[in-house]
Structures are given as C-alpha cells and as structure tokens.
C-alpha cells in the first residue's frame, strides 16, 4: 500500500511547516490518475499523524479529475481511468490534469498569548 508512504510524506511536510503549532485540518488535492485510494489515504493519515502536531487533525481530500488533450484532433477529454483514448480513436494524448498531489492548505493554532502578570493586574 503506497498510500502510507505518500501520507507519511504529507505529514512530514505539514509538521515541518507548522512551526510546532497544532495542526487542525489539512486539505490535499489528489489527481484521479495518481492511483491513490482516498479511503486508504484517510486511514493512513490518522496513523501517520499519531504522536505529531497533526495528531487528531482532519484530512480533506479534493479529487481532481483526469483531463487530457488529443495531439491529433485537439479535443479535450475527461479521463475516468488509465485508458488514454480520445473519441477520435487516437491514443496520442497529453495529460493536463489528474496526476496532482498537492497540500493545498492547512489550519494551525495561533501561538498562545503570554499570560498576564497577576500582580500587575492587581495593582491597577
């Protein structure tokens, strides 16, 4: 299952960019042609996040459909699977989307404010 390795890389990047702040949500864009099973990636996310600042974070997956442009006729087509064939019969396609794997956003906690000095507040 390559989803665990991919998800571990996502967790590593998220933790590195969070600067030690708690991560609450992560949005990842996954291309439909990446051969990543969304349910498996969601399951792996919670396992990979254990013991990190992303533990308990929610993963949002945005699936990008596969799209290709035919080099013969110029038509664009939506690709539902890995069979790359244009309506004109040509297999000479240029894939233009569907292979993405991007961390689009993450929600982290703000740094905590320093507690007020109780003695200073009492003297007011």
Concise synopsis of the structure shown:
Helix content is 26%, strand content 31%. The protein is α+β, with helices and mostly antiparallel strands and 124 residues long.
How would you characterize the overall build of this protein?
The chain has helices at 3-17, 38-49, 118-122; strands at residues 23-31, 58-64, 66-70, 76-79, 93-97, 101-108. With 124 residues, the chain is α+β, with helices and mostly antiparallel strands. The protein has a domain at 3-65 and 98-110: hypothetical protein PF0899 fold, CATH 3.30.2320.50. The strands form two sheets. A three-stranded mixed β-sheet has the order 2-1-6, with helices on one face. Strands 4-3-5 form a three-stranded antiparallel β-sheet, with no helix packed on it. β1, α2 (38-49) and β2 form a beta-alpha-beta unit. α1 (3-17) crosses α2. The protein is elongated and about 55 Å long. The model has no long low-confidence stretch (mean pLDDT 88).
Query: What Rg do the Cα atoms give?
Result: 22 Å
Which sheet architecture does the biggest sheet show?
3 strands, mixed
Helix content class: 25-40%
Overall geometric form: elongated
| Strand order, sheet with most strands | 2-1-6
CATH topology grouping of the domain at 3-65 and 98-110 = hypothetical protein PF0899 fold
């Amino acid at each position: 299952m390559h989803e665990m390795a991919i998800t571990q890389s996502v967790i590593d990047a998220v933790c590195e960019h969070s600067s030690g702040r708690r991560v609450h949500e992560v949005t990842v864009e996954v291309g439909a042609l990446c051969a990543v099973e969304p349910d498996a990636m969601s399951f792996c996310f919670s396992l990979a996040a254990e013991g990190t600042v992303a533990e308990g974070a929610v993963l949002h997956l945005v699936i990008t459909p596969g799209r290709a442009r035919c080099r013969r006729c110029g038509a664009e087509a939506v690709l539902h699977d890995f069979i790359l064939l244009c309506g004109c019969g040509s297999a000479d396609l240029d894939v233009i989307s569907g292979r993405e794997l991007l961390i689009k956003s993450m929600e982290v906690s703000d740094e905590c404010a320093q507690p007020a000095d109780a003695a200073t507040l009492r003297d007011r």
